[in-house]
Amino acid sequence: xxxxxxxxxxxxxxxxxxxxxxxxxxxxxxxxxxxxxxxxxxxxxxxxxxxxxxxxxxxxxxxxxxxxxxxxxxxxxxxxxxxxxxxxxxxxxxxxxxxxxxxxxxxxxxxxxxxxxxxxxxxxxxxxxxxxxxxxxxxxxxxxxxxxxxxxxxxxxxxxxxxxxxxxxxxxxxxxxxxxxxxxxxxxxxxxxxxxxxxxxxxxxxxxxxxxxxxxxxxxxxxxxxxxxxxxxxxxxxxxxxxxxxxxxxxxxxxxxxxxxxxxxxxxxxxxxxxxxxxxxxxxxxxxxxxxxxxxxxxxxxxxxxxxxxxxxxxxxxxxxxxxxxxxxxxxxxxxxxxxxxxxxxxxxxxxxxxxxxxxxxxxxxxxxxxxxxxxxxxxxxxxxxxxxxxxxxxxxxxxxxxxxxxxxxxxxxxxxxxxxxxxxxxxxxxxxxxxxxxxxxxxxxxxxxxxxxxxxxxxxxxxxxxxxxxxxxxxxxxxxxxxxxxxxxxxxxxxxxxxxxxxxxxxxxxxxxxxxxxxxxxxxxxxxxxxxxxxxxxxxxxxxxxxxxxxxxxxxxxxxxxxxxxxxxxxxxxxxxxxxxxxxxxxxxxxxxxxxxxxxxxxxxxxxxxxxxxxxxxxxxxxxxxxxxxxxxxxxxxxxxxxxxxxxxxxxxxxxxxxxxxxxxxxxxxxxxxxxxxxxxxxxxxxxxxxxxxxxxxxxxxxxxxxxxxxxxxxxxxxxxxxxxxxxxxxxxxxxxxxxxxxxxxxxxxxxxxxxxxxxxxxxxxxxxxxxxxxxxxxxxxxxxxxxxxxxxxxxxxxxxxxxxxxxxxxxxxxxxxxxxxxxxxxxxxxxxxxxxxxxxxxxxxxx
Length: 849
Ligand code: ZN
Known about the structure:
This protein is of the alpha+beta class. The chain is 42% helix and 21% strand. A hairpin with a 5-residue loop joins β17 and β18 (201-208). α3 (309-327) crosses α5 (371-404) and α14 (639-645) crosses α15. The radius of gyration is 27 Å and the shape is globular. Residues 290, 294, 313, 316 line the site of zinc ion.
């Protein structure tokens, strides 16, 4: 059915729920096609809310019976929920409903995955489980009984009791329904223990399918590391007797922070050296930490409504980023985060899907789990910390936990703790939450009589629904270098508040070289007319590692731009600087690997579009390739040694140091392979004893149009393993020649391993197609049509995943008329499909603008 005129929800319409809940008891009688859920909910009028009608959300379920205070009632049922006359005072509402987990392919609510039962309730999945006020500001204590013949029965909180075919759980901490979880399956646990700082003994379990036990150790270690870190860095302890993590194969997102029972996409739990790359290990560590940190930032203190999503996500991402900085390398982490933010969040800001970190309206909340809410949300927390300092930040966070524990709060509450703890007025700063778009800084400088002046102008381009932008508070970290590379002014934080503003440094003996926006101190773009020589100087001398990397990146982008637009030759000065950095063994190999990476083809397209050009994806690809060949030649003497240094004897370790060496070695291998016909990569593929080395060698070969035998060998070895096969599907599509991308993708959808119901597989295939810029935009538009076909097909099964993948089209206005026409036609075809979900229809409408 087509949703009758999907409704827009507005932040300004927020009203509290007229009742409070004193307790919830749920009983699940699990059965694949007919699960019975009985609920017993004790309501009482909310003294702080105006009265209103009694409405409970509820969708896709059958109400079997309902009672109020024990007497049968006949509620009125709509597609969205239930209304009923209720007593004036406190009352108990009971209901029995039937649901069909087997038929639930949306993976939202209660569903089946590989024979087990599991739930996903954020944001609004609980309303597919039973009738309930499914909104985050209604918090309640849950007691849950699960009945099933499955051997392992889990829910939130602490175990109460269990017997043959049943188990009972009680969660003493009041929580919103989106944090509810239940799992029942044939699972085994990899157990662990943690003793909190104040002496609470906590049982830890990573639950996996039998056979996967050997791949859960890293997740368990990461969990312990996170628990300790949160005690040390934030003074936050765990608050239950058990902490369970379950790996499931079919999951729309990365993972979910359900209270005491985190549910994870198996790709973010399972790892062994043979099956997971260094990047996978790092990502698992970070996501385990992220979900664990939600226990305080999200669960103990939650969001008043879904417009406040960044309250928990921005802060929790910031916390997981800080954790990774502490347990790995801070500069490398900062660079990785900046790369991601620019590639994805700046892209979002540039297109029709741009929205504020705190949106003011939505049709489908699932469409707002975006890089803007998450990653830009985290940047805002980072800026706050920079502005108030470490001590101010700690004081503000202490106050936040103190004042709001057990509450569902807003961004205003969050900013108020910073104001109260530090005395700072954050009225203007709050614009970071309400204004969409990436601020653009233009910088000029002047030097006279020992005074050096930096002048900044800020400007933010219009975004959908926001034409006028007011100036924002921008913390700009600046250092000044002297001609010999000495730092003459150490990192200083400038606070820009005006549209245009100058800052002066006195008492200098000569004109310095400025290092601006050190550590990427604000999520902005910068334009400054400066010479290549100055950038080369910074690449060689900047004491701030971020800006050192940034200088190299700027030069790479500049030389690529000149190649694309002016047919220029690769910049010899930059190649030389690059060589010097690569040979500097005092520098972290992971850092050097990052210096070696070029901006992606999609980023180049975005960059050209910003300069007012129409990007040609094939031309960008050709120049990208030519520049890599030039690198391969210019760095020829350094590369083999870097590659050899990455062949680390002994047992594989995913820690930062060896992983960094492998990253550099494999970057070198990629370049060597452009000139040696693939000999070295073939040898590495043959001998690799870990996935990092194996997949890097395969990628290097595929990138030069070889590697078909290795691809077949890889498949033969790993066809039984879903997670590894995701890599197999994804890699070949990502690296396909432009005109091959669509036909190959189509062929792979016929492969017996392709499963449209498994989001990981669908993402591996179609995410890689749209990630192959030249392949996605190949002449003729075959990739556009193929993606649209599958989005339509997928939408009928799984709207959330279809909707996310549709963002591949969000840059359509960047391109030439032919491509624009082809993409628009596909978007219109999707929009015109009967029965489209609210998720996908909102996205295509916004993209069509
Ligand atoms: Zn999160």
